[in-house]
Amino acid sequence: MTTDDPILARLTALRAGDLPVHGGRTMAYVYDSGLEGLDELANAAQAAFAGVNGLDMTAFPSVVELENDLVRRATALLGGGAGTFTSGGTESCLLAVLTARQYARKERGVTEPELVLPETAHAAFHKAAELFGLRVVNVPVDPDTFKVRPADMAAAISDRTALVVVSAPSYAHGVIDPVVEVAREAERRGVLCHVDACIGGWYLGHLRHAARQGQDVPGVPEFDLSVPGVTSLSVDLHKYAYTAKGASLLLFRDAGLRRHGWFAHAAWPGYPVVNSTLQGTKSAGPLAAAWAVTERVGAGGYAVLSTRVHRTTRVLADGVERIEGLRLAARPEASLIAVASDDPDIDVFVVADELRGSGWYLQPQPAFGASPATLHLTVTAAVAQPETARLLLTELEKAVERARELGPVRVDPEVVEAAATLDPDALTPQEVEIALALAGVGEGGRLPERMAPVLAVLQELPPRLSARLLPEVIGRLFRT
């Protein structure tokens, strides 16, 4: 974009340093349909509603109409009887936990609520537990499949359990937890069960729709609100519905359950407050953009896009397995691929750096528990072009060869041993500086061009210490 306006020119210049959001080369964070005109439609809809305040639906009834339409569309696809439009997957997950906590307090008298999570559950649930005062009960997953075992989830449920969570699919590995079995046990114990389908729900739902229409795609495991015992489900529209950022839905089995997560207050001299989300004032722009895009694409269009993504995911998974030195951490059951290596000469963090240098972003994921270090690929419709997929596999193979020549990042074991003795809650500023310097992060407000050394150190540290250092790393980017 060229412009004579210096303000817009500055924004254009800043964007030049970002990852691209179109073309399929950024395989995390962004979702590109590849459809012409969809962005323009979303931008126009968002602009038309940018000034509309979603805080008060009595003042802006258009907000209710648009949200009702989106929820109806989602419940027709994924079941349930009520829903709330939110700003994204994190807010949907936070609200699911908050709703469950309130329900457990009011309906079951639980005073010390617990949240039962597979260790592969998204970090948003840990954030929710910290914000809303729940104790997390972490459940290990099968080290071969990376799915949680129903018996282990059942053993973790107690009289204090407010909510159990399963993923469809899990972000890190792209596999679907045994929703039916876990939900059945939760229902038997009188506990709510949430399915985190933020990334996969829209895709899996429409892939199932394509299968029913006779397309040659595999059956989708049962995962949604039609499953007995599932009481809530989160699904992001700004992922595989390809809407503008800031669009997610939290669906419930019924409106009565949804009400437990709402906040209402009348004991003050101002206007009566009712909040269905964590936000009060909020722009209706993302809501309007989501409505417009889903209206334009429609169920048939999403079925086509999901089928393309499914086929390309399989092509990429098969291609990865043919590259010497790489392997799949798990066979993908949705549109996410986790790539690992058992070759000691191949460091996947170095591979990620090499790919970024050639214009591709594959997200590095540090090792944790039984899960090895991996590269994460989110396959979108923009990737589902034969030439794009072919080029990605070619560049990935070249990056692996360059990584082999460069060799893996070596972390001094004495440094790791010394770091393990540190108390994350009592680090002095001097110890923080030493630890960051060892990871290759210095002063100056910029991260290193190559992140492999930083990631290699962070994954070797105890998780609590890494979590203590991460804000220090990111904090250096903000100079004021």
Automatic annotation (TrEMBL):
Protein name: Aminotransferase class V-fold PLP-dependent enzyme
Organism lineage string: Bacteria, Bacillati, Actinomycetota, Actinomycetes, Kitasatosporales
Family matches, as Gene3D superfamilies: Aspartate Aminotransferase, domain 1, Type I PLP-dependent aspartate aminotransferase-like (Major domain)
Organism: Streptomyces endophyticus
Cofactor(s) needed: pyridoxal 5'-phosphate
Protein family according to the UniProt entry: Belongs to the group II decarboxylase family. Sphingosine-1-phosphate lyase subfamily.
Pfam family of the protein (one): Pyridoxal_deC
UniProt xrefs under InterPro entries: GrpII_AminoAcid_Decarb, PyrdxlP-dep_de-COase, PyrdxlP-dep_Trfase, PyrdxlP-dep_Trfase_major, PyrdxlP-dep_Trfase_small
Alphabetically ordered keywords of this record: Aminotransferase, Lyase, Pyridoxal phosphate, Transferase
One GO molecular-function entry: transaminase activity
